[in-house]
Amino acid sequence: MDSNEIKSLIQSYLNAYNSFDVDGMLLHLHKDIEFRNILNGVINVETKGIEQFRQLAEQSKKIFSHRLQTINNYSIIDDKVEVEINYEGTLATDLPNGLKAGEKLILKGKSVFKFKDKKFLLIEDYS
């Protein structure tokens, strides 16, 4: 895959994510997708396989009334792509950590993507 194909695939995935389109997100995933969310160096969410990812994506839809990931920068390194991300979201529900419905989250982070057969084999989100 060339850099334009990679950028287009990532942007298409993020567009689906931003619009809560789980089927659109899954379209870009390899059947053996591994996903990890890493917060302060600790894995706090992990899925293996497309069905576990689907379940997480469906659950996540219910947490936010609005969410938006925007790309700041791409770095293509060998077989992976690191993407600097700005994230904002508005909670749709109260969370166990004390955050309340209607509150906004604004974060900066990084996502790492690895590919197989022109689909995502690995997604790691760091914040």
TrEMBL record:
SUPFAM superfamilies: NTF2-like. Gene3D superfamilies: 3.10.450.50. Residues 11-120 form the SnoaL-like domain. InterPro entries: NTF2-like_dom_sf, SnoaL-like. This is SnoaL-like domain-containing protein.
